[in-house]
Amino acid sequence: MLELFISAMMLGFLFNAAPGAIFTESLRRGLQGGFKSALYVQFGSLVGDLTWAILGLGGAAVLFEITAVKIPMAIFGGLLLAWLAFNSFIDATKKIPLFQPVLKKDDRSELTIGAVISLSNPINITYWAGMAGIIAALGVSEPTGVSFIVFLVGFMLSSVIWCFLCAGFIGLVRAAINQTGWVLINIACGIGLAYFSINVLMSTYISLN
Fold this sequence. Notes:
globular, 209 residues, mainly alpha, 78% helix
């Protein structure tokens, strides 16, 4: 079980380290609020990850293969990313804000946006639906409930650690950038979010044909 736990942590780090919409939005928000803003987006995404994990392990993956469920969620996710991309381009036209690392009451929207981005991506459930195969490949010939729990705990622990590592890196970037860096990073984030939005919407369109 220890080997399974360690393997789960390694997979968790690899899964989270892959550049994606969550990292891009964490960077965009972290440019304004620093470490805490980026951390809250990351924490919010854990809500979605854990939800998909529970649904996938519980066998609910079949439900999300139903077109009437899968397509609306994918469209919502794509439009959400497009909206975030638009906001990023708008931010690039503004003057760099004062560095305000102290979390304010209205900054809790970072938690919400992180959770919504993660929850609106039903592709994640495919990963968790195949968990039995992954665990078996890691040396557990007959995966049990205990095996799934050990894997999930290892995966989520590495995800929490990654939240702090990612937010720490973003906090350092925010403390060091100037106006030019602010503009360039926001443009890069806008392009990245737009790419993910187009990719989701195009994949959805193709799946309907």
